[in-house]
């Protein structure tokens, strides 16, 4: 569309576009723009909702990992305690075994007898 030029100063003249068909399509594109904006807002809301779900899932997983770490620490401490108790019991068993051997060697009931000397 050619704009009329003012011959005197070379500037453009304002023309009313009220009846211009292109202007009416501008109104339509404004409606389309609003519809597009509404769709974008809906998309953004959906993305925000998805992000919220992801954030909640991450938080849940982090809490689960922390709980499992605490459980592992507790189990590790328990294993260490059991190992220590096991070593203590082995030591006590050795002491008791030695004590029993000493009692048996001191008792005449458990002395080995020579069968040849009894027959004579």
TrEMBL record:
It is found in: Cytoplasm, Cytosol; Golgi apparatus membrane; Golgi apparatus, trans-Golgi network. Residues 1-10 have a biased composition (Acidic residues). It comes from the Eukaryota. Coiled coil: none annotated. Keywords: Coiled coil, Cytoplasm, Golgi apparatus, Membrane. Pfam families: DUF2205. One of its GO terms (cellular component) is cytosol. Positive regulator of amino acid starvation-induced autophagy. Belongs to the SCOC family. This is Short coiled-coil protein.
């Amino acid at each position: 569309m050619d704009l009329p030029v003012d011959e005197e100063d070379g500037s453009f003249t304002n023309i009313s576009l009220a009846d211009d068909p292109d202007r009416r399509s501008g109104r339509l594109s404004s409606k389309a723009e609003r519809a597009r904006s509404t769709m974008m807002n809906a998309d953004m809301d959906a993305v925000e909702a998805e992000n919220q779900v992801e954030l909640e899932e991450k938080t849940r997983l982090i809490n689960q990992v922390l709980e499992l770490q605490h459980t592992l620490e507790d189990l590790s401490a328990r294993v260490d305690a059991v190992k220590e108790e096991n070593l203590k019991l082995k030591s006590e068993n050795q002491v008791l075994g030695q004590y029993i051997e000493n009692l048996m060697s001191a008792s005449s009931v458990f002395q080995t007898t020579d069968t040849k000397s009894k027959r004579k």
